[in-house]
Amino acid sequence: MLVTERDRMKDQIYALADQLGRERSSLIPILQEVQKAYSQVSSFAMQVIADALGIHPVEVNSVVSFYSFLHTEPKGRFVLRLCRTISCLMNHTETVAKQLENELGIKFGETTPDGKFSLEYTNCLGMCDQGPALLINDKIYTHVTPDKVHGLIEECRAIFGVHAMQQKEGH
Amino acid sequence: MIEPKNKNKLTFATIEVNAGLKKAITLSRADIIGELKESGMKGRGGAGFPTSVKWNLAAAAKGDKKYVVCNADEGEPGTFKDRLILTDYADLVFEGMTIGGLAVGSEEGIVYLRAEYTYLVAHLEDVLAKRRAAGLLGKNILGKEGFNFDIHLHMGAGAYVCGEETALIESLEGHRGEPRNRPPFPVDTGFNGKPTIVNNVETFAWAAAIYAKGGAWFNGLGTEKSTGLKLFSISGDCEFPGVYEFPMGISVADLLKEVGGSDAKAVQIGGASGHCVPAAEFSRAIAYEDIATGGSIIVFGQDRDLLDIAENFLEFFCEESCGQCTPCRDGNPKLLEGVQLLKKGECSMQYLNDLLSLAETMQLASKCGLGQSSPNAFVSIATHFKAEILGRTGKAMQGGK
Q1: A56, A66, A144: which to substitute to probe chain B, counting the most B Cβ within 10 Å?
Q2: What mean pLDDT comes out for the span B143-167?
Q3: Considering the domain B229-300 in this protein, what is its CATH number?
Q4: Phi, psi (5° rounding) for residue B276?
């Protein structure tokens, strides 16, 4: 990472700490914001957050490593989380899983080389009556079938095309 | 967003929003808790602790600050009623929290919302903003001098164990979601060491309904020990999955009839941490005194292989165990290994009994509800379906998936 980029991240983290507070209870909200902006919580980011809150970096790392929605390695612009809980599985999640792998050319747990898509399994998404359920970033899709997978991914690509320059753009 | 409305009418749709709050502000603190006591309501998250007792303990506890926390970390496999309540009846939830604030003397409410439900944030913030604008949150609520209360959202970050109230508090404080020893209980030493009530989304919504319609109304429904109505999340092999409302005490058979799942082989009640009830026991009642549940009902048809189900649940617990205590951290992988041996047909009766003994140790010795309840599904399947799970030849079950 360039020095200027590091400086910018540092400024941003201190601004977040000012905005969200420097108590320990602000740690997870700060981590979530940093991850939203950078698609990961890097070692450098954890160090700066620790300094900003006056705690040891190991404390920050122990929190990041605990929660499945926080990660130290970069993930794709779109994180696809397929529910693998029993009710969804009973509606043939495995065919959706296979087709996701086919369309993206990666296995579960991997990120596409262009950094656009990460594919993961997740536990119950609370859509058990409408499975299979798939969460793409913050958006939920239900009754997903293998023939719909291509369209969903194309939808993401279209969003990416429009907002490629806006790193923080949610959807 | 996709939200098929269930044909089954919910009582929440008939409750006049804020009627309960308007009634509560005319009552003394003791009478507010008295009304809840009369209702007999027990926590809708599944543990079944009487809500009025919890509120009373927090009201009596000393603290310069107190907190009202809504547990919206709905992560139990097969549970989705809180998502529906937050989508359609968020007003009732916030109203219940506000009454809770009045009852225990708190000015701050926090909704701990699971990360998977981030798409609900905009809607919930919108409802909160409208309540603030209408004088239902903020300073001197509804003109009552000194009644100050506001609510904010706090996002979870993907950890099932944070549905356990002390783990949830740890997470709120910015730590790993590792459950604490109890006592001290949160009503005494909760968020930031202050008295805190943690209640389920549904509990707060029913509280609002109870103040609107009276504790006696709620008490007149359900059974003597399990009063009132309850929402159920129903999925699996049935014709009409979705969210249903039934009085407590309904039999499994009656429930299955309603959802079109009468030919089920077994029903998982209480999610991954609950029990797998075989068809022979469908006359049992869903109530705290018989089969307790937070509302997750998963129906298994005749063709389902129950070992697949036990394996799925144990994989879930291996992943979601916080790793703090040995029975849970090491016990769940051992049980999972056992289920895989059973699937291969390589498990002796003696080894199965050893596994059941390990399961008992986990139930007794784990630190929190996760480890204590994680063996339940395995134990009930191993107890009720021995003939089906022993001596597998490695071939798929007839008609199996």
Answers
A1: A66
A2: 97
A3: 3.10.20.600
A4: -95, 110
